[in-house]
Amino acid sequence: xxxxxxxxxYLCAIQPTRSSRERAVQLHTTLTKRLSSDRHFKDWYxxxxxxGSYRRNTAIQPIKDVDVCxxxxxxxxxxxxxxxxxxxxxxxxxxxxxxxxxxQRRSVRVDMSRTTLDVVxxxxxxxxxxxxxxxxxxxxxxxxxxPKGHLAAATRINQECNKxxxxxxxxxxxxxxxxxxxxxxxxxxxxxxxxxxxxxxxYQDSDAPSYAEAFVNFLNNLxxxxxxxxxxxxxxxxxxxxLPGQTLKVRFTEDEAKQFGEVIRINLDAAHTALGKEQxxxxxxxxxxxxxxxxxxxxxPTSLLKTAxxxxxxxxxxxxxxxxxxxxxxxxxxxSLGKLKIKAELAYxxxxxxxxxxxxxxxxxxxxxxxxFSIIExxxxxxxxxxxxxxxxxxxAREAQDFxxxxxxxxxxxxxxxxxxxxxMTCELHRNGVLLARAKHTVNIK
Length: 446
Known about the structure:
By secondary structure, this protein is α+β, with helices and mostly antiparallel strands. It folds into 3 domains: about 20-145, 2-Layer Sandwich (Beta Polymerase, domain 2), CATH 3.30.460.10; about 150-300, no CATH class; about 340-445, Immunoglobulin-like (Sandwich). It is built from 11 helices and 17 strands. A hairpin with a 2-residue loop joins strand 16 and strand 17. Helix 6 crosses helix 7 (about 195-205), helix 8 (about 210-230) packs antiparallel against helix 9 and helix 9 (about 255-275) packs antiparallel against helix 10 (about 280-295).
């Protein structure tokens, strides 16, 4: 089994689920019905459509944000952006979205139970197929946007790149989410999704023969052209794929730009190493990629999945996956995770005598103590891989740039109470790159 099949399975693992896609459509349908029938708003309402990564087929799971453009029957010269966005908000609050809304720069955010709905008012002075006007509250003016131009650009670039662009965008998004949110504990990393898409469009290698080489070459091209400016705290200018001649309005602090450059540099070295392992052991190569992409990247060949309790099915025609060879991996048993319990015990030194148990989230511990973590119960049968994931919070950890790390294979972990703040230790059980069970323990340090 060659490494391309591992990447196809990785793409399958990061695909939005059918239920999340259906939920996005339902949210849009419900919003349309409510706004179009609101007696204080229906005269303004023209139409609405889904846009964003979901519409461009560049979304990855989970779909947490659903973007909807609401087209208005108004003259931009007669209505200020601030007033329009606030009127949209009032209409939403009248229609059972109350207590969940917040004004944003160009839209109204609606916080649902599982999804955030981003409602964007737009004006179509020249028709929906041409650039639209979108409000910019801080600038107090209407600015150009082109959702359908972005969709057309994504489709065109994907065709020009032998249908490799959209899968590469998903790979890059999932990789960056894992690197920033899981390993560095940054919940709102920059650049955001659409900027990453634009960077892939600019710096991808359209002739790369595999997803692995496409990813490596993208990082290499980005580092070659932008590495120096990023390390100096300057984010590069990014062309807008949907509006030729214009650039994206990206807002980066100096530290954010430096951090992005450092993530690119570190992962470029790791990706070159992983790519070089393809000439040797495929198993070692898969593990190397797994360290870059995280637990969604498989480490075992498909031939072993059936013996581990999985089935492999060919993707059906019409699925949103661009590569028809991507397999869908599903649990044969129940879809819920198995049971897993861990415990933490306190000691003065590593591997020293145990003083007492430490309940999760209990009173704050002093610095320079030690905790022994171990598994005490699980319903998951052997074999499985154990992963211990540390996530550090607090100013001391940020100053040390120590956001956390992951170790594998050991049934017991000793950890030092090094930084003040609230920290988590998560234990995960995996088989063939698939998560089977998870347990989390919170540690407060004073």
